């Protein structure tokens, strides 16, 4: 199992300034031993040079800066996975799509003791928390790389043996699935989802939200959807009361550190 250890930006910053300080001091020591004081401009120039050199050549910096657009997610890495440093693996979509751990814990708590199907399991943010409290978990993702990462990440949390992983298309697999609760955290169309004022259900992928919900209902009425914070709440209510029989709907705003990250809609024919 590939285990990557990554230093935090702060640690990198500290070690970088330490090594610069050390190198500059060495240089000054050398100079003073020969009793020749270097020109202050030369010291400045060399320090700057060493700083740039160490920034460019820091392996940790290189590893983390492969995609600058992901930096904001990397800075929140411990909110995404508290055990991030123990070998968590992510890809680009994983970084911007994973459910923050605090939210996943709450969603899983609602499914305690049940058989849960995590229909769009990604790198496993939700799957791990379901595995901790549910009687069994089926995790489905169409992308085999995500499933490999999810297995690795479940290993980090010691719950890998409590999940059945399936590489496949939820839409095609649906007729063969059985479970008490269906959890849907589908692609929202990328990190630009919040560029519209109101996110409508037709923007969900791989099918629009109405179709996804219809497919989910063929398996169970107990459906949980993790959706953008700007989702059209009236459409969610519509989904609930247009169902036959009408479903109860509970909407939860999910915050981390005081910022809303998403909305969870709990649909049920009875309390889940
Ligand atoms: P965000 O809005 O991209 O990040 O995603 P953040 O840090 O709130 O950005 P800010 O600059 O607006 O403050 C917030 C959360 O939404 C992520 O942590 C994911 O849990 C979730 N999320 C985002 N996207 C694009 C998706 C997605 O496509 N699918 C799913 N299931 N969740 C997503
Ligand atoms: N809840 C997950 C994030 C899910 S992101 C977590 O916490 O980690 C949405 C996922 O849906 C992506 O990993 C993507 O590969 C997957 N996906 C997209 N289309 C799919 C389909 N038709 N069937 C199953 N998975 C799909």
TrEMBL record:
Catalyzes the 2 serial methylation steps for the conversion of the 7-monomethylguanosine (m(7)G) caps of snRNAs and snoRNAs to a 2,2,7-trimethylguanosine (m(2,2,7)G) cap structure. The enzyme is specific for guanine, and N7 methylation must precede N2 methylation. Hypermethylation of the m7G cap of U snRNAs leads to their concentration in nuclear foci, their colocalization with coilin and the formation of canonical Cajal bodies (CBs). Plays a role in transcriptional regulation. Belongs to the methyltransferase superfamily. Trimethylguanosine synthase family. One of its GO terms (cellular component) is cytoplasm. The keyword Phosphoprotein applies. The lineage of its organism: Eukaryota, Viridiplantae, Streptophyta, Embryophyta, Tracheophyta. It comes from the Eukaryota. Its main location: cytoplasm. One of its GO terms (biological process) is 7-methylguanosine cap hypermethylation. It is found in: Cytoplasm; Nucleus, Cajal body; Nucleus, Nucleolus. It comes from Brassica campestris (Field mustard). Keywords: Cytoplasm, Methyltransferase, Nucleus, Phosphoprotein, S-adenosyl-L-methionine, Transcription, Transcription regulation, Transferase. It catalyses: a 5'-end (N(2),N(7)-dimethyl 5'-triphosphoguanosine)-ribonucleoside in snoRNA + S-adenosyl-L-methionine = a 5'-end (N(2),N(2),N(7)-trimethyl 5'-triphosphoguanosine)-ribonucleoside in snoRNA + S-adenosyl-L-homocysteine + H(+); a 5'-end (N(2),N(7)-dimethyl 5'-triphosphoguanosine)-ribonucleoside in snRNA + S-adenosyl-L-methionine = a 5'-end (N(2),N(2),N(7)-trimethyl 5'-triphosphoguanosine)-ribonucleoside in snRNA + S-adenosyl-L-homocysteine + H(+); a 5'-end (N(7)-methyl 5'-triphosphoguanosine)-ribonucleoside in snRNA + S-adenosyl-L-methionine = a 5'-end (N(2),N(7)-dimethyl 5'-triphosphoguanosine)-ribonucleoside in snRNA + S-adenosyl-L-homocysteine + H(+); a 5'-end (N(7)-methyl 5'-triphosphoguanosine)-ribonucleoside in snoRNA + S-adenosyl-L-methionine = a 5'-end (N(2),N(7)-dimethyl 5'-triphosphoguanosine)-ribonucleoside in snoRNA + S-adenosyl-L-homocysteine + H(+). This is Trimethylguanosine synthase. May form homooligomers. Interacts with CREBBP/CBP, EED/WAIT1, EP300/P300, NCOA6/PRIP, PPARBP/PBP and SMN. GO terms for molecular function: methyltransferase activity.
